[in-house]
Amino acid sequence: MNSQNQHEIIVSGIHLELTPSLKTFVHEKAERLFRHEERIVRMRVELESDRNQAPGTQFTAKGHIEIHGPDMNASVSADECHKAISMLVDKLDRMLQRRHQMHRVKRNHPHAVELDAAIPKALA
Asked: How many angstroms separate the CA atoms of 6 and 86, rounded?
């Protein structure tokens, strides 16, 4: 990790050699997610290559975001590794936006609470 990148991004390859340029590409794409949500603790990206699958799904990118609250997982398949990474980041970005929107709606629209007991009156 360099001094600019404070976020923990773990990149691993399954049946795939990770080149420095591929790692850099993942880090550059993932920075967009950290701009939207600063409370992300850690992000793990797994890149998998399987030559025996159908021609359009040879590369699979799996993303796991550890965040305060429920963790988020996503997986996409594509014919190119860089395309799979871009699609994964787009999918995680949509998930983060939806999560943020849900929290904002709940915060601005509180639910009424019914109490069984009577509320005592203030002393005068």
From this structure: 21
